[in-house]
């Protein structure tokens, strides 16, 4: 039995920890980020279990309190500094949205609609996105600016419990998200993530009928996680599959990079994959865990525009207001790529928080960036689609700094290729030299 002194001692310790934890949670919500000090304070009860600790002295209690509050203050200062830096820097190349698809009744009927991509088939638009993580649901419309939430079809349903991966780490039984469709050779291919692996459907149209889903074996084994597949057909018909990955054992702390692999057919890789872009910009490391930051590069989408291969990707924590779109260019699909957004992403996060995981739609000679945005700056997953008009020539001119003389348009390539327009950009090699000061 514990005596009165011991009971009072533990009551004071637990009360102090509970109070500091509460303060940390409040600060975390205010700063739109999981405060790393929370981790510290949750571990402090272990100190009371150590042998020979004895009754905590006033200096020990004060030390614990100051250390915890110091971490809270560090988080406040850090987040404010990050906001100030991103508010004063950045590409801001995409400023005025063409369309925000969140009018009531909004798409999803209560579920979020994230990671969007749109394909056009026989005069109709088909929007693929992450919804309830148990189905692949397609929204359809004859107008890009008018979507009816009732016009949707479930084209595929998982027979797994999506929450198993988060509880037991089972790669075969997890949620379904980040679908991306492409029309090629009269067929529709829908690539998507399920659990910790990538799968693909092949059908006659964006709503099927589809053949049974095939898993794409990237050779990562049971300890690997792959996500966000994005197919790209080059002008010669070669298929490349871009995707994001990081090691499972480093899920919360390891960097997340974008890789590419050549494909033998629509579901079979040819050879080993290779890295395309890795986190190396400050804004790409902003995420919800302050004491265990990990860089994020994910959500790839490649477009061929003139002589450039233009890669759109997303960085920072996907559930934070800092999630944003980056751009890199190369002379060939496999790189090497040069990043063009050193200080921040394309979007002004002050006006539109959490815009990311984009794709590019080419429709009647115009480019549109299709992405999702967060409903507010508060950390979480309430997201809905947003569309920007895109002038790729102007974007590359802005990001690369100078323009080359006008020239005749180059022929458009199939797949994600851009239609011809006037040449007004510089080569990736020149961009690399300019960024390095050469």
Q: Approximately what portion of the residues adopt beta-strand conformation?
A: 25-35%
Number of domains: 2
CATH topology of the largest domain: Tachylectin-2, Chain A
Note poorly predicted spans: 27-41, 48-53, 165-173, 248-252, 402-415, 418-426, 432-438
Give the CATH level 1 class of the largest domain. Answer: Mainly Beta
The level of helicity is: 10-25%
Report Rg. 24 Å
What distance separates the N and C termini? 75 Å
CATH architecture label name of the largest domain:
5 Propeller
Largest sheet: 5 strands, antiparallel
The CATH homologous superfamily of the largest domain is named Glycosyl hydrolase domain, family 43
Model description:
This protein is an alpha+beta fold and 438 residues long. The protein folds into two domains: 4-88, no CATH class; 99-435, Glycosyl hydrolase domain, family 43 (Tachylectin-2, Chain A). Helix content is 20%, strand content 32%. It is built from six helices and 21 strands. It has helices at 4-30, 36-43, 58-88, 164-168, 392-400, 428-435; strands at residues 99-100, 114-121, 124-130, 135-141, 152-157, 176-184, 187-194, 197-203, 214-216, 224-233, 239-247, 257-265, 268-269, 274-277, 297-305, 308-315, 324-330, 338-339, 356-363, 366-374, 383-390. The strands form five sheets. Strands 10, 11, 12, 13 and 14 form a five-stranded antiparallel sheet that branches. Strands 1-21-20-19 form a four-stranded antiparallel sheet. Strand 15 and strand 16 (308-315) form a beta hairpin. Helix 1 runs parallel beside helix 3. The longest helix has 31 residues, at 58-88. The chain is globular and about 80 Å long.
